[in-house]
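Weekly structure sync, notes
Attendees: PL (lead), two postdocs, one rotation student
Agenda item 3: pending single-chain targets
PL asked that the sequence for the first pending target be pasted directly into the notes so everyone works from the same version. It is reproduced below exactly as submitted, 683 residues in total.
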Amino acid sequence: MPLEQILADSVTRAIATESTKYLFEILKSKISNVFERKKINFEHYDELAEKFNRYLESSVNEYRTIPTIALKHRKVYLEQVYQPLKILSLESDMYTYNRGTNQPVSLDKYNEEFFEKCPKLLITDSAGMGKSTFLKFLFLSSIRQQIQIPVFIELRRLNAKHGVIDEIYKKINFISSDFTKEHIIELIKDGDFLFFLDGYDEIPGNDREEVSSNLKQFISYGNKNRFIITSRPHHGLNFSDFEKFEIVGLQKEEAFELIEKYDKVSGYKLHENLVNTINDAKGKFNEFLKNPLYVSLLYLTYRDKHELPLTQAAFYRQVYDALYSDHDLTKEDGYKRQIFSGLSRDELDSFLQQFAFRCIEDSINDFEKDYLLNLIKEVLKNGLFEKKVEPFEVFKDIVQNVPLLIKEGSSYKWIHKSFMEYFAAKYIAVDPDKVQFLENLWENQLTYLADFSNLMTIYADIDKRTFNDIFVKRLLEDFINHVEGEELTENVKILKQFNFQRELLLVKERDSTEAEKIFKPFTDIEKSFTNRYGIWLANKETDYHFGSMFYPMIDEDTDLSLEILAIQGDIKSFYNLESLLNILLAKRYPFVQLDPGHILPEDIKEKLYNFRYKFEEGSWNTLHVAHNIQVAGTEAEIYILFIARAFIDLLILNYDEAKKYLDKLNANSKKSILSFMKRTEKN
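Predicted structure, written out during the meeting:
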């Protein structure tokens, strides 16, 4: 081990020991105070505090090193390769005209002041943005700073029969007849804990509803504590009293800093050439640079081939090739590790496809060793391999030689969930039943598409034609029919593009205290809103959120600004519009665009983004647009700028681009490989 890593290791251990000793005293005092106050007969305060302290020490040891695909054969300390991330509120100032106040929050440590203001935090973002690493970093930082009593829980370990309290009880591992789970609940009710809850989206699908209910109950009676939940976006994420944030993508310079950190640990000295290659590509890799996972994949693939892939699927393929080949630039003798199973690159790829699909099918990414070996055995039995292969040999290959699975504690998991999704996508693409599978996914997108979102983003690279036929073509036909459902004057056309599968209700409010009452947590918003304004959403399926916008007024005699309350959301009767549009945006389909500016004429667009522009209030009291409400002749058609402001930062379908793309799809669908045979016969 290099001297730098030895020093980092010893310093980390020393800090952890000092911090956990401090927490031991806090815990001992807390246990005695709570149990005495509750008149709980218990005499083992020191032993229980010591057990909890050991849990913290083992957690520090577990989370201070991380697996990183870019440096797979090295023990990597989190702090050596961690690039500080920023988070951005999805709610604060969401509807205010002064949107500049909603600035990203940079977290290069556990920020006590910030988390005191936001004690319940929900951080969502797409695959590879570093949510788990970010949470581990904050956990370690809170221990180092001796802030509260931190507990880290991987939500994938929960199921219908094993809830949060069960997991905490298991982690503490204090076996005593006079210590029960109810005692843990009493300690948690007393407060001072800091819960890091990682990976809501990884809760097994069949158990998610029950686990969510258990989790919400746990949070409710632990209300004096702080909670941070991470997840990919998911329709089940209904934690109404949590502040919602997303991770801000890396800036180009930050991505280059991360590459330099990999270089310092690996010694490969790729930074300069890789950065030059990226800069010479003139923006082709900008989207990849925002994502920490993809930066690490760029590093690995460049190390192996000195060239960079252009699609997500190509990324994963090149990473797999690099891991299988195992070219190590620090060795000059060309040494390669032996593949124990004897499976060729393509055979192991085939195994991984079947194995990954089973993992998706069974909603599992946490394997005890015996279960994993049995699953490998089943996949091998069903696969068409030319020779007999031992499950344990494959196990060693996918853990050691081509390390797509890693060991965490006593169990194993995919090194990153997105690799499981990549191989599963490949499996679906060659399966005879793929069309039926994808049609079922289309028909049941409200239930399944959020879970399959990243998988389908990768699938679109692998089998674009089928993806277009089932997802893109049907969406465009529905959208175009919707827009053309009314005579297309300019403003009607704009509004019909806005309200596809969406609903928006705006009302004027001159008394800010009334607005505060309506939007106060735990109030019945529908009832309060209807009582005050006499109107509510037309679609009960609308998954709404709420907020307010402030508009400067042109009339100097009135207030400087007018507050407008907004209820807005997607209509969840068939479409999972958010997941579907995000997939299409990631694949750069030209008809999906961020912000309404792309579909507005220049005069309206100029006013839209001028947040000092003074509005003429007009005589309207409510503006209401929805998928199933006619817009022609309504006040919404007249006051379209008020409507457009509410759609800033939302994904919008562009009618003109949609028409062009659908024409292109229809033209291509007329082409057939059979036409070649027909031409040959004539000749």
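Discussion points:
- The mean pLDDT is 85.
- The first helix runs from residue 3 to 37.
Action: rotation student to compare against the earlier draft before next sync.
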